[in-house]
Amino acid sequence: MKGTIEMNEINEMHQMDDNLRPRVDWKNRILWILLITCFWYMVVCSMPGEILFGSGASPFRGLVDKLGYMKDATHFTLEMYLSTITAFIGIFIYTGVTRRNRFIFRSFLPKFPGNKISRLLQGLLVGFVMNFGCIVCALISGDIKLFLNFTISQLPFYVFALVCVFIQSSTEELWCRGFMQERINVHYPLWVAILVNGVFFALLHVFNPGANVLPIVDIAICGLSFSIAKWYTGSIWFPMGIHTAWNFTQNFLFGLPNSGLVSEASIWGLDAANARDSLMYNVEFGVEGAFPAVLADLLLGVICLALAAKKGRLGELMQKQVTPRMDPTGPQPWEFKLPQESSGNGDWHYADDLARKNPADPGQTQENDGDQI
């Protein structure tokens, strides 16, 4: 009896401590992650690039004018693509410096198991095939006409443009599929992180020229499929390659609008005067605003899901990701070796897997309200 009374007193003291402890509304975790992503990506990390390479008082505009080599096209490339380089560098600094995000930082590096040059090249090939297929549909329907617009003296510019497009496309992937998706997956099942990522990616393009319902729907499906592809391959490099090839193919290879933005130079030129809106092509937004792009993006996600189902991995969509929440200095997810029979590809591990293999240590899978974003 006495022991029971003492236990009740201890429980009451713990309850009092809990009541005095400040409460955080973690139901809004997704909102906070979105706000932090927007703040760091769009404000802190992107503004320096806009100042250096954007329009107006950019210190590089005078140098480009003085050199006189394809200056209009170079201005466009600096302003629309290379201006993201500070956000590209910023994501590495932010995830590398903040202790709780270092597992994300390490997932960007070559030593991460899924990050191989072959995976990047696969992404480049997939992105080219997807975009080129959409362009062929527009050509067959007669909605666009192209003409060759290339001389060998322009080759250095297109190499420079490819590098800049890679920086811009990779920046969006690192922030969306790299940082934001993984932070949400710490607290919520993977399917929630993928869904939020698709919606957020669409909202990033709402104010682009020519954006309306169909283009925004396509961008949302694109965000979903890129997120699924990143999960299935276990590599951020794969969607980086797809994104780069897609943007470069339509903007600099065939001279079509890239989310409403038209390059000042391209290897193939568009006869803009005779272009027309249809189900196959959107005059303002480009192939991204037409049904072939919707089908191409949807097909990418469906193929990845089908391959994952074949390997028995669809259960991962319902799981939270294991991160070093309990011990930030301990093993990172990709360093922790699970037995071969565990689900997944061995590169990324989930809470249910870890709980099954470590039943004596349930704390590894418990939610930690003190986890930093």
Task: Describe the protein's topology.
Layout: H1 2-20, H2 29-44, H3 47-53, H4 59-67, H5 71-80, H6 85-97, H7 102-107, H8 117-140, E1 146-148, H9 155-187, H10 190-203, H11 213-233, H12 237-253, E2 268-270, H13 291-310, H14 351-357
Antiparallel strand pairs: 1-2
Helix pairs in contact: 2-6, 2-9, 5-9, 6-9, 8-12, 8-13, 9-10, 9-12, 10-11, 11-12, 11-13
Question: Could you name the key traits of this structure?
Answer:
373 residues, mainly alpha, two-stranded antiparallel sheet, 2 strands, 58% helix
Structural write-up:
With 373 residues, the chain is an all-alpha fold. It has 14 helices and two strands. A two-stranded antiparallel ribbon has the order 1-2. α2 runs antiparallel to α9 and α6 runs parallel beside α9. It is globular, with a radius of gyration of 24 Å. About 12% of the residues have low confidence.
Helix segment tally:
14
Taking the sheet with the most strands, its summary is: 2 strands, antiparallel
Strand composition percent: under 5%
Shape: globular
Overall average residue pLDDT = 83
Structural class: mainly alpha
Unreliable residue runs: 16-26, 324-348, 361-370
Count of extended strands: 2
What topology, given as strand order, has the largest sheet?
1-2
Measured distance between first and last alpha carbons: 46 Å
Please summarize what this structure is.
With 373 residues, the protein is mainly α. Helix content is 58%, strand content 2%.
